[in-house]
Design a protein that fits this description.
Layout (H helix, E strand, L loop, with lengths): L1 H12 L16 H17 L2 E5 L5 E5 L10 E6 L13 E3 L7 E4 L4 E3 L15 E3 L8 H19 L8 E6 L13 H4 L3 E5 L6 E3 L4 E10 L15 H10 L16 E9 L3 E10 L2 H21 L4 E10 L3 H4 L4 H12 L5 E2 L7 H6 L7 E2 L3 E2 L7 E3 H21 L1
Parallel strand pairs: 3-8, 3-9, 9-16, 10-15
Antiparallel strand pairs: 1-2, 2-8, 4-7, 5-6, 7-18, 10-16, 11-13, 11-14, 12-13, 17-18
């Protein structure tokens, strides 16, 4: 399985499948559709049935039950795209039998994985580490998940003695920009429960995520010739700066961890006359989430009253919700994943997702969907890396989950 995983993963990360946040199509980039067709052919070749790729680039394939017992169909999902902020076509580098020293990713640009900043590296002495060459992200998020699911499915097909119910597999586009899963046909997928394979380091098991919203703020000021501006000019950029200063400094991403939420200024573009600002609002607790949204609206209202000649608008839109409330109703699926990890020699680490996954939206559409580890670290950046032995454990965990569901029938 290890060689299978390595070969698949190296092949997948050589394909640039960045999503495009400015597109109004799904998939947002043609390369995702090309990748989807390639994966569909691979699923057919290893023996999955009814493999399809729809117009949105969503891949589905199935393995029929081989038992007469009534076993709940279980699904496994990963996403095709990589983060749009960093080049997605990777030239992967392999460190065999890692010796515990700093890893020079790119000497020219002084990109280093040093053990002081990244002490988790020391967990993997003697193992195989795959990293970037410093010119792109790696794409472990989530091509590792794809490779791990396919390797697990191939193992199940090649070992008919493994008793299992119906298994459903899907690969989805545009997870990184939050649009692809809206096109997902839950009824066609036909799983009763599912798992996204889109987590981080070895053992991560996630069933709660941020409540998420985005805010767009528009500030219209008054532009006057600066030589004659006294008492007349209202610089919208300065109002924007004042707005940002009114948000709690302790509630920024770089100041928070665990269950702590934040405000993130994602974009600002302005002139004296007009400035536009974009914010992300994140919070695990539903009541705190509502408070954060209202807090931002209150700041806008205060500034509008302070500057009556300005025109300040704020539009807040919910993006996704914390899936915990849906997972708790069927918490045994988390316990199955814990048992599957332990049987693979992995210690489960239950942590909140400081972000979202496709599983969050799917859970609210009737498909409870916790998230499993892939073995990757430092996603979305040029210091991204993954551990091959952790990938193997992820595939073993998937196989073990299938076995556990069969025991319940």
């Amino acid at each position: 399985m290890r060689d299978n995983l390595l070969n698949r993963f190296l092949r997948y990360v050589s394909i640039d499948t960045q999503s495009n946040p400015y597109s109004n199509k799904v998939p947002s980039t043609h390369s995702q559709l090309v990748f989807a067709e390639m994966l569909a052919e691979e699923l057919r070749n290893i023996g999955l049935e009814n493999v399809s790729v729809d117009k949105h680039g969503i891949v589905m394939g199935f393995i029929s039950s081989n038992t007469k017992k009534d076993v709940a169909p279980v699904g496994f999902i990963a996403h095709l795209d990589t983060a749009p902020s960093v080049c997605g076509k990777c030239n992967p580098q392999i460190v065999n039998r890692y010796d515990g020293s700093d890893i020079v990713v790119n000497e020219k640009d002084n990109i280093i994985l040093d053990t002081k900043t990244y002490p988790e590296l020391l967990q993997y002495i003697g193992q195989t580490i795959i990293h970037t060459d410093g010119n792109s992200l790696l794409g472990a998020d989530d091509k590792a998940g794809i490779a791990e699911i396919i390797a697990a499915m191939e193992h199940i097909v090649n070992h008919p003695e493994i008793v299992h119910g119906k298994i459903c597999v899907a690969f989805t586009p545009d997870e990184e920009i939050g649009t692809g899963i809206d096109c997902f046909d839950v009824e066609k997928f036909a799983a009763q429960y599912a798992y996204t394979v889109d987590g981080g380091e070895l053992g991560e098991l996630e069933y709660e995520n941020f409540n998420a919203a985005k805010a767009n703020i528009c500030i219209e000021g008054v532009d006057v010739h600066p030589g004659y501006a006294k008492g007349k000019m209202l610089n919208s950029q300065l109002v924007a700066m004042e707005l940002e200063s009114m948000l709690p400094k302790s509630e920024k991403p770089e100041q928070t961890s665990g269950y702590e939420g934040f405000f993130l200024l994602t974009s600002i573009n302005g002139t004296i006359e007009k400035t536009n600002m974009g914010y992300l609002i994140r919070e695990h607790d539903a009541a705190k989430f509502e408070h954060k949204k209202q807090f931002l609206q209150n700041i806008v209202q205060l500034l509008q009253e302070k500057y009556p000649f300005a025109k300040i608008s704020c539009t807040v839109s919910d993006q996704y919700r914390n899936m915990r409330e849906k997972i708790e109703e069927v918490f045994f699926i988390v316990e199955i994943a814990e048992k599957a990890m332990l049987d693979a020699g992995v210690t489960p680490v239950k942590v909140p997702i400081r972000g979202g996954t496709d599983g969050a939206k799917l859970s609210f559409r009737g498909l409870p969907c916790p998230n499993l580890f892939t073995g990757g670290h430092n996603f979305h950046g040029k210091r991204e890396y993954i551990v091959l032995e952790s990938m193997e454990k992820a595939s073993q965990t998937i196989v073990n989950i299938v076995k556990e569901f069969a025991k319940m029938g």
